[in-house]
Amino acid sequence: MSRHLIDRLFQSIIVLAVMSFVIYGLMGLMPGDPIDLMISSNPDVTSEDAARLRALYGLDKPITERYFNWLKAALGGDFGYSRIHAKPVPDVLFPALGNTVILLGLSVVLSLLIGLPAGIRAAVHPYSKTDYTINLAAFAGISVPPFWLALLLIIVFAVILGVLPAGGMGTVGDTGFWDSLKFLVLPVASLTIASVGGHTRYMRAAMMETLRQDYIRTARAKGLNERQVVLGHALRNAMIPVVTIVALDFGALFSGALITETIFAYPGMGRMIFDAIMGNDFNLALVALLFATLLTLVGNFLADVAYVWLDPRITFHQVET
């Protein structure tokens, strides 16, 4: 087990290194650079000034040399400055990351708290009215476009009823706790409704497959009640494929939800990455995308650990040989 985890750690480092070069190369191939934007905004900048600035920032060098210079600085803790915000990249990244963790963290927790029990109940009563009702609600949630749902919530609760703000973000220090929390209600509800259907469907499918296994029939033959069979024997094994889905969502948790954050004017990671790419803010976009990649790898790594915790029979001997 420990050897497998070490191998996965080295694989993650290699993937992160390759992705850093790919993302840096794609950013470098984008038309225009910060100097071009500076020239377009200031007609007094001459071609000599532009050439001197490109030499100063190393933009006149080959992209591979520029990448290794950036990598050397990044390994030393220097991630550069954000051109749009005129601040060091960490000073811009971490506040947006904190906002996204609050927004998407609440939506993921609510989605799991609603979706997992609903999926279990549908699987325990297959092809019943309860199962059909839960499936219908899950399909409706999956099918609704997120942007349409967000706009509908704004129209109903902000425009017609006027009970919730249409967007933005409150500050706890400036307003009361509930006044700040009100800004999260609509975006969290939008993301929760959009994701709960998928979690419900995955949980239902995994639980139905597990309930067909021989050891479940044996547990029932021993006289255990249905609650003990489902929660004590079936749930841990049924959670294995669901853990995989949650691990894949881990990277999205920190990369933000661009559409939802844009509609609700929420200052999160998704909107920040989009603004950085559109504004040719290379340093900020590069570090933010790499951070999302890193957390996706961390999620997959934690999923491997969770597999063994959920089912101790799982081993990685074939990988270790």
How is this structure best described in words?
The chain is mainly α and 321 residues long. 77% of the residues lie in helices and 1% in strands. The chain is built from 14 helices and 2 strands, in the order ααααββαααααααααα. A two-stranded antiparallel ribbon has the order 1-2. Helix 6 crosses helix 8 and helix 9 packs antiparallel against helix 10 (226-255). The relative contact order is 0.14. The model has no long low-confidence stretch (mean pLDDT 81).
How many individual β-strands? 2
Pick out the low-confidence regions.
none
**Mean of all residue-level pLDDT scores:** 81
- What proportion of the residues form beta strands (DSSP E)? under 5%
Number of helices: 14
Name of the CATH homologous superfamily of the largest domain = MetI-like
Q: State Rg.
A: 24 Å
**If classified by CATH, what would the architecture of the largest domain be?**
Orthogonal Bundle
Quaternary structure annotation: single chain
Sheet with the most strands: spatial strand order: 1-2
Q: What is the H-and-E element order?
A: HHHHEEHHHHHHHHHH
Largest sheet: 2 strands, antiparallel
Distance between the termini: 12 Å
Task: Provide keyphrases for this structure.
single chain; about 325 residues; mainly alpha
Q: Quick summary of this structure?
A:
The chain is mostly helical and 321 residues long. It contains 14 helices and 2 strands; from the N terminus they run ααααββαααααααααα.
Task: Itemize the secondary structure elements and their pairings.
Elements lengths: L1 H28 L4 H8 L5 H11 L5 H13 L5 E2 L4 E2 H36 L4 H15 L2 H15 L16 H35 L2 H8 L4 H30 L2 H6 L5 H10 L3 H29 L6 H4 L1
Antiparallel strand pairs: 1-2
Helix pairs in contact: 1-13, 5-6, 5-8, 5-10, 6-8, 7-8, 8-10, 9-10, 10-13, 12-13
